[in-house]
Amino acid sequence: MSKRAVLEVIALDAEDAVAAQAGGADRLELVTDMAADGLTPAAATVAGIRAAVDIPVRVMLRPADGFAAGSVERLVAAAGELREAGAEEFVLGFLGADGGVDLAAVERVAGALGGCRWTFHRAIDRAADRTALRKQLADLPGLDTYLTAGAAEGVDAGLPTLLAEAGRRGEPGFEQQLLVGGGLRLEHLPALMGAGIDAFHIGGAARPRGWGGPVAAEAVAEWRRVLGG
């Protein structure tokens, strides 16, 4: 019996969190401001969601649109505030102007998480060299997941890359779980699951009324049904 696939759902508030859990989500990614593709939420939102649901929550550490770290001191301070509010898992990822990973910023922020588990997000899809980035980050404490569509344009374009990376699981730099998200649709799942990918991330797909409306438990439940478990 294979273990059930992970379904992560983007939540903006406690209402989203409750609906996502009711629909069968395994984990939440908590962000604010989806117009900027998801930024660091307020500590009060973290506390409210931790009180509302009991599934894991990964909290975004991203100060502004784009993939520059900005002030690392501010990021470290934000991480501390979020941890005090109950955050136990995080999402982050920073690139330099050359498209390479901003290793100094990632190391500093990861070091401030005190061993918390974290995801390197879709900055990998904008990196100049995905494999080099993975190898540079391979030994960072807490890094257990890459959120990726395989390409900046989304899963439609990135599918071949995702399937190739799934085949490298266990190689140096490829030990982390692949969490596929970014234009992900139900029809992508058979090929991805057939390659052994077992973690999926949805945002708009959980919101029948678009980003102006809340997560719908029924939409999440449809994904849970297709993924099994």
Written overview of the protein:
It contains eight helices and eight strands, in the order E-H-E-H-E-H-E-H-E-H-E-H-E-H-E-H. Helix 3 (72-84) links the parallel strand 3 (57-60) and strand 4. Helix 1 (14-23) packs parallel to helix 2 (43-52) and helix 1 (14-23) packs parallel to helix 8. The chain has 229 residues and is of the alpha/beta class. The mean pLDDT is 96. It has an eight-stranded parallel beta sheet with strand order 7-6-5-4-3-2-1-8, covered by helices on one side.
Main sheet record:
8 strands, parallel
Proportion of helical residues: 25-40%
- Assembly status: single chain
**Which blocks of ≥5 consecutive residues have pLDDT under 50?**
none
Shape: globular
Please write the string of helix (H) and strand (E) elements: EHEHEHEHEHEHEHEH
* Helix/sheet category: alpha/beta
The mean pLDDT is 96
Give the total of beta strands.
8
Strand order of the largest sheet: 7-6-5-4-3-2-1-8
Specify Rg, calculated over alpha carbons.
Answer: 16 Å
Distance separating the two termini: 11 Å
Number of helices: 8
